[in-house]
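Researcher: Sequence recovery benchmark, item below. Answer with residues only.
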């Protein structure tokens, strides 16, 4: 490839340039390239309070020298800058210790996923602004108890991801996302409550800001009139969204890297029952509507559904190429990194606890106890190494399966594996979080609750 010293290449051209230079030098190299254009619009009190158009692109390099990885990245895609990035990656590899299992692979072809379509084709900026304004206005006007809407936003993204290596791998995919989010604040008799709702799609015309706004207000108003929670051990129902939040906090325990480092309560338990037989947990990067869907991971390994827990039995861990090699297995397509600046680790895509056969309305039938609809404080109160948690929660008191009244903020404590093992019923309806974790509502026999 010929180019002037200062000419900015496309990410595809930059990938080709770097791989050609690396091969000429006898360097083993992986290139991870990303281009992203995004719109972010916030609305407040009937006006646009923030409008951002952003465009970023760059390449992350990973050179393998003597069994050691050397990283570098650059957002300057001129040939001279790419040469410097290659030099730096090689130099960095010479400064660190070799790692067992390190290697580059020319993976098989990935699945054909359409994550792009025509979702934002022809959509004007004015239409995007209208979504943000309609979302905030509808929430603000939905109920006289709404005092403000601190958070109302529209976000979209148009991205392209490329991976290549000197073993001959070269692949890419494009993805579109459109998303809106709203969180109204409601007040009554000195109580203030806030709830949120959101919608994700790849087709702009599917966005329904009115429905999202009304749902968020309904959820917030339902918490007004909250009473202190009792303390003790009680039967409990976790809403699907709340259980998904818990699974998100503890997803690192399924990482082959965490297992290898002795930082997972599931280490050494492959093939064992670790949950109720009603529990089947899958990570699936190929879901057509999954927020984190992708044709391949950051190493280029093809995506495929992976069952982690089947009918309560632990069947697999998440692996990248290196953790898999050290564990004597194959990559599951779960290499992950924080953009082109990050290092390669292990992470989930779309994590899903599969729906059961109990109608949603019957999960809490006859139960007197707590309905937990949300948890917070996970950074300090959840330990994925042990599975233990002590978290702030919100929800309702149930009497004979019906909602008696909302509860003031309370504490729930336990161990995630004990929660999964204690599941007695699983709803037939899945709810998703905005972190791409999905779960149905579940009933458990006992949960430690700390009230006011």
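Model:
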């Amino acid at each position: 490839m010929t180019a002037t010293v200062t000419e900015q290449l496309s990410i595809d051209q930059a990938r080709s340039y770097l791989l050609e230079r690396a091969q000429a030098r006898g360097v083993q190299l992986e290139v991870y390239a990303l281009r992203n254009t995004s719109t972010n619009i916030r609305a407040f009190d009937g006006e646009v309070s923030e409008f951002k158009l952003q465009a970023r692109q760059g390449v992350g390099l990973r050179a393998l020298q003597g069994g050691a990885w050397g990283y570098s990245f650059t957002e300057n895609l001129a040939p001279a800058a790419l040469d410097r990035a290659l030099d730096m990656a090689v130099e960095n590899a010479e400064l660190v210790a070799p790692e067992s299992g390190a290697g580059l692979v020319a993976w098989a072809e990935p699945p054909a996923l359409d994550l792009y379509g025509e979702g934002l084709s022809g959509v004007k900026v004015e239409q995007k602004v209208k979504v943000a304004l309609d979302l905030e206005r509808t929430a603000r006007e939905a109920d006289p108890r709404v005092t403000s809407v601190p958070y109302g936003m529209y976000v979209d993204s148009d991205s392209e991801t490329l991976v290549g290596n000197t073993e001959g791998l070269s692949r890419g995919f494009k993805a579109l996302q459109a998303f809106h989010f709203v969180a109204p604040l409601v007040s009554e008799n000195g109580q203030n409550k806030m709830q949120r709702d959101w919608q994700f799609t790849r087709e702009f015309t599917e966005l329904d800001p009115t429905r999202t706004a009304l749902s968020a207000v309904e959820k917030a108003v339902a918490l007004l009139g909250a009473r202190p929670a009792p303390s003790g051990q009680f039967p409990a129902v976790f809403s699907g969204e709340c259980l998904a939040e818990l699974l998100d906090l503890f997803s690192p325990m399924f990482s082959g890297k965490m297992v290898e480092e002795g930082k997972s309560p599931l280490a050494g338990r492959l093939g064992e029952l670790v949950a109720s037989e009603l529990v089947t947990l899958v990570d699936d990067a190929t879901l057509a509507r999954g927020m984190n869907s992708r044709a391949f991971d950051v190493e280029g390994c093809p995506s495929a559904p992976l069952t982690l827990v089947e009918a309560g039995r632990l069947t697999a861990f998440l692996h990248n190429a290196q953790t898999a090699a050290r564990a004597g297995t194959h990559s599951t397509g779960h290499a992950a990194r924080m953009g082109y600046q990050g290092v390669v680790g292990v992470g989930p895509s779309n994590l899903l606890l599969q729906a059961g056969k109990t109608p949603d309305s019957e999960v809490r039938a006859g139960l007197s106890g707590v309905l937990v609809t949300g948890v917070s404080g996970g950074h300090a109160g959840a330990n994925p190494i042990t599975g233990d948690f002590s978290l702030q929660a919100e929800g309702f008191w149930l009497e004979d399966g019906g909602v008696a009244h909302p509860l003031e903020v309370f504490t729930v404590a336990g161990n995630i594996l004990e929660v999964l093992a204690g599941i007695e019923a699983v709803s037939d309806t899945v709810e998703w979080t905005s972190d791409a974790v999905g779960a149905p509502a579940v009933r458990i026999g006992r949960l430690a609750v700390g009230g006011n």
